[in-house]
Sequence to fold (204 residues):
Amino acid sequence: MTASAFRIGRFTLGADPVAALLHGCGHWALNFLIITLCMTPLRDLSGSTLPLRLRRMFGLFVLFYAVLHLLVYLILDQDGKLGVLWQDIIKRPYITIGMLALLLLVPLAATSTRWAQRRLGRRWVRLHRLVYLIAVLGVCHYWWQVKKDVTEPRQYAIALALLLGYRLWKQRRGLIRFSAAPFARLRAALLAGFRSWPSQCKDR
Fold:
């Protein structure tokens, strides 16, 4: 295959178009995964529900590009040989975790509707927390696949660490507030009783 066969105007896939397609689809899957995880912090900062309404769409884009990534690898890179794919899944850890991440995306996409959310209730929240594991697996898949220059995988890892760190901080802050709530109520009750004590003495 020559690069000129994949040239449209000034756009070209380079000397190895299959590798360009493969890596491009993988990059966009990770990009949309990071964008999806950004929706909750954006909601908290803006106070708008728009990011949460867009989150489902971005999540489906993750699955779309992840499936394209797999199809390019299977059809264009391995000539559709399922046996070779299965051997790679067993022998190559980065392909193993990449396939695991893709499989975990399927139930999240299948239950991304409002109907599924109402149907599953609290189980929906627990199920969709798998997105954090998927993100970790996706970044590890990319990092282990790169042999020398890990600049881009490191950038994804830093972005993911910040997003997960924000969620841990938010959860910890919520737990602190929850644990402090009974003491705050007790303090308010004591102060109210102390303030009303002089009037009660006068009545006596």
Notes: Residues 74 and 80 are 5 Å apart (CA to CA). Residues 3-203 form one domain. The chain has one domain: 3-203.
